[in-house]
Amino acid sequence: MLSYTKKDVKQNLSKSAAGTFKVTAAKFMLDFHVHLGYSYMYMKGGSDVSPRTGRPPSEHPKNIQVKFLADQPTMEALELCSQKIEKSKSEIIRMGIQKVKAELDEK
User: Fold this and answer.
1) Does residue 38 sit within a domain?
2) What value does the CA radius of gyration of the chain take, rounded to a whole number of Å?
3) d(Cα 8, Cα 91) in Å, to the nearest integer?
4) Beta-strand (E) ranges in the chain?
5) Is 1 contained in some domain?
6) What is the pLDDT of residues 14-59, one digit of tens each?
7) What pLDDT band is residue 100 in, cutting at 50, 70 and 90?
8) Which range of residues forms the domain containing residue 79?
9) Confidence at residue 58, expressed as pLDDT on a 0 to 100 scale
10) How would you classify residue 46: left for phi > 0, otherwise alpha for psi between -120 and 50, otherwise beta?
11) Is 13 domain-assigned?
């Protein structure tokens, strides 16, 4: 990899040929960016960096969508429950399913 010092840059600034300076400045910037990229990669751990960041995977991911038809009173009841308990509508529905399942297990 090429490296440029302040002296190299100043010499190119003093040259009268503008084209030479533009080419040299472009090479300097390219080398600088490549160097920064490699430095950042090695600071972060090289190729051993985890490809995925964020929250850890859930033990029971909620990746299945269920669609159902409901009438207006049912939706109003769901909205009311959601507001009173301060949980999402999905969580209210999950709680209802668990209650029905618990009743079935008791029988």
Assistant:
1) yes
2) 31
3) 66
4) none
5) no
6) 554 555 555 566 566 656 555 555 555 555 555 555 666 788 888 8
7) very high
8) 72-106
9) 86
10) left
11) yes
